[in-house]
């Protein structure tokens, strides 16, 4: 039984890592209705920039701040020169644009910093430690705490600050937001900046886990089932979706793997997501239309 | 141009998507501290005219291709909506358009952000809205999406008032509401005019209600102004019958 809980807890903690990537999507999708495929490249770009600065002898926090500035510049460029030109276009056009952006950002990262694999050490001891007879990864617990703090900060931002309330207003009704004098361009800039920051945090954690390399941008593919299950418009949905994916894929791998062969982890999340699409297309926390009778 | 008009429109023509002609040769004025009604049947061009003034038409691929709009003596033909709200010209959209997933109070707050007021000032503004719409104070924590039609109309108007406007463009405030609620809303509009000195340009199909409160009225037919005059005069003349607006 304790082995079951060990697998479950390990899975939940790993799932939080997926949530971190998913949150970046949710932010942009909520504010502008754009499914930003480039989020994965932003994660890669952030991690690569950070690591390269670190390797050039720059201290941790200075590198963090510089990378953050780079992410803001990136967000500003994308908003100003691509998305603003495409407002009022159909969603598929915007999606294709972010797909294109995704490769441009990767190419940019590569030509700036080279293509080799970098190790990233955040100074967190990754020896498993024992808790009530279960072995847990310290790194995973650290990542979960970071995600927890991030969600807390974001929920205060969205519920208590003027910018946050305005962002939720824009997510609800763009025309009405314009009519009350909200400046959409300014808000999109802010939301891309916040998504860049979330990308940086995800990039550091994923980079430390897998090494900083180009396959890092593929974490987007793991975020997709998380989004489908949690809903595209909910930050808490990202967390819950991540937990479900993380736990179920580990449990399936360990307990079903013996019967139907290993490698379940690779496809199980997508199967789960498909089931959700059939049963509950808006995800667990996705916003349904409010309907009055 | 009428001397001292707050808003003055000269011969504007609006085209959607470069090809759809919605209104042409529209001229109208709004005097300070007045309520002006813009009456017309479905598709006559009322909303288009209001959105041309507020700058929202361009967000819907509409374009003012001819004519000119002046507000407080300045040309605002191409001024973006946010700038106009800062200068005291705000539109309440047809169909209310509340932010459904925001609470009633958060809806109101969004309208107050343009001037970046202090927290104290923002609370004062909220209180003054609750003074005119006491019912909203009881609902302040509820999601606006669950409020009734009349309450949502009050939210939409209150939200616009949070920017402390000089001129409010109201698009069909009576739409889908019971007669009693319509009277309640128009009475509040009249009070705002008398007590705060605000002006209103009200687009309506409900000619009867609008004319009871308006000072002056224009009638739109097929994208053109077909007649205009003092509200009382229009109310008693034959033009309403002729434009299928009586009733
Ligand atoms: N976004 C748009 N794109 C294309 N055509 C439009 C658009 N909005 C309005 N029109 C057209 O412009 C004309 C005037 O429409 P408008 O909405 O201004 O009328 P209205 O008087 O407000 O009508 P209603 O009482 O139904 O609200 C109509 O023929 C309409 O089809
Ligand atoms: Mg209309």
TrEMBL record, chain A:
Keywords: Amino-acid transport, Cell membrane, Membrane, Transmembrane, Transmembrane helix, Transport. Its main location: membrane. It is found in: Cell inner membrane. GO terms for molecular function: transmembrane transporter activity. GO terms for biological process: amino acid transport. It is a multi-pass membrane protein. Coiled coil: none annotated. Pfam families: BPD_transp_2. The chain crosses the membrane at residues 6-27, 60-82, 94-115, 135-158, 188-207, 219-247. One of its GO terms (cellular component) is plasma membrane. Belongs to the binding-protein-dependent transport system permease family. LivHM subfamily. PANTHER family: ABC TRANSPORTER PERMEASE PROTEIN, BRANCHED-CHAIN AMINO ACID TRANSPORT SYSTEM PERMEASE PROTEIN LIVH. This is Branched-chain amino acid ABC transporter permease.
Automatic annotation (TrEMBL), chain B:
It comes from the Bacteria. Residues 7-247 form the ABC transporter domain. InterPro entries: AAA+_ATPase (IPR003593), ABC_transporter-like_ATP-bd (IPR003439), BCAA_Transport_ATP-bd_LivF (IPR052156), P-loop_NTPase (IPR027417). One of its GO terms (molecular function) is ATP hydrolysis activity. Keywords: Amino-acid transport, ATP-binding, Nucleotide-binding, Transport. CDD domains: ABC_TM1139_LivF_branched. GO terms for biological process: L-amino acid transport. The keyword rRNA processing does not apply. The keyword Iron does not apply. Signal peptide: none annotated. Belongs to the ABC transporter superfamily. This is ABC transporter ATP-binding protein. It comes from Methylovulum psychrotolerans.
